[in-house]
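Q: what sequence does this backbone want?
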């Protein structure tokens, strides 16, 4: 891992850094490599998606993009590093619904504020699916599962990757919107939850498509619905949860690009245009969609508005669920 180095000068030099790049510098940007801080471990789902976008984005910008993994505290550590970075366009953040929305409600002090960043563009919307063990003959549809949950409150269990994770909040939102009581079982990671679902020790799991699609294809899991507003291209036969019986249910992961507050608009505009071009490349779309990630670029303003809506919406889910991480 290459350590992030931020130079701090003294006197006038320090003031110049704080002021950010001059207009001429912004116009010439980028003149050297860009660091993209990914606040998750190398090899994980977020890291994989970030790299899939970074490579074509590098070609669009004509400069190398160096991925720097700074995992920890649900993404807070790496995200806070970018919040404090020089706003010159050379240190950027891979952001998610976790780092940009739910973490502010889950953690007392995440180390940064929503206003510390300039939204650049969303990358993808990542579908999740509600899955049950394929050998469980009781639940061949969402309607059957919800009917059972209503007549047997507290009996069914929903596993998650841990308290406050997206898989936890997705279960809580299902309880809230469907009027059922399905018990939450937190695990230390999604793999452990998957193991227990396959072993018949929990009733269901709501997890992102990249984590469940292989088991669905192998016939070991049955998907009762996806969490996105539209069906997923890679599995068009799976209905949305809204179609299947919980009208209006939406809970999906998303990711995007963020820059430190104060980054010049000229740089942000260049970045936004480059991201949009990169995500339109057929090979990039295919690579992302094969992993259950739907390319979903936005304007800067659209991401700002979307992020604000998600911050409020997910905050309500967290507060109603009583979820918190010390």
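A:
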């Amino acid at each position: 891992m290459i350590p992030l180095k931020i130079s701090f000068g003294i006197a006038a030099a320090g003031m110049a850094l704080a002021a950010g790049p001059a207009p001429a510098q912004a116009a010439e940007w980028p003149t050297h490599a860009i660091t993209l801080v990914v606040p998750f471990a190398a090899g994980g789902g977020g890291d994989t998606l970030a790299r899939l976008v970074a490579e074509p984005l590098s070609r669009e910008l004509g400069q190398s993009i160096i991925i720097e993994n700074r995992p920890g505290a649900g993404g807070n550590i790496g995200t806070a590093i970018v919040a404090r970075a020089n706003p010159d366009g050379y240190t950027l953040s891979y952001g998610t619904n976790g780092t940009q929305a739910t973490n502010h409600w889950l953690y007392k002090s995440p180390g940064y504020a929503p206003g510390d960043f300039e939204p650049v563009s969303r990358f993808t919307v990542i579908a999740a699916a509600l899955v049950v063990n394929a050998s469980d003959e009781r639940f061949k549809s969402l309607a059957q599962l919800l009917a059972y949950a209503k007549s047997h409150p507290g009996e069914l269990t929903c596993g998650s990757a841990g308290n406050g994770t997206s898989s936890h909040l997705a279960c809580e939102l299902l309880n809230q919107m469907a009027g059922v009581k399905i018990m939450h079982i937190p695990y230390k990671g999604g793999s452990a939850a998957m193991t227990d679902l396959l072993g018949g020790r929990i009733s269901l799991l709501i997890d992102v498509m990249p984590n469940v699609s292989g088991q669905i294809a192998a016939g070991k899991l049955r998907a009762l619905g996806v969490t996105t507003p539209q069906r997923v291209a890679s599995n068009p036969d799976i209905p949305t949860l809204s179609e299947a019986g919980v009208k209006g249910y939406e809970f999906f992961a998303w990711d995007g690009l963020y820059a430190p507050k104060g980054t010049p608009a000229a740089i942000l505009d260049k970045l936004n245009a480059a991201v949009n071009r990169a995500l339109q490349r057929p090979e990039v779309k295919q690579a992302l969609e094969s992993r259950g990630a739907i390319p979903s670029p936005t304007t800067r303003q659209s991401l700002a508005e979307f992020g604000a809506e998600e911050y409020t919406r997910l905050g309500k889910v967290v507060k109603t669920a009583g979820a918190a991480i010390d």
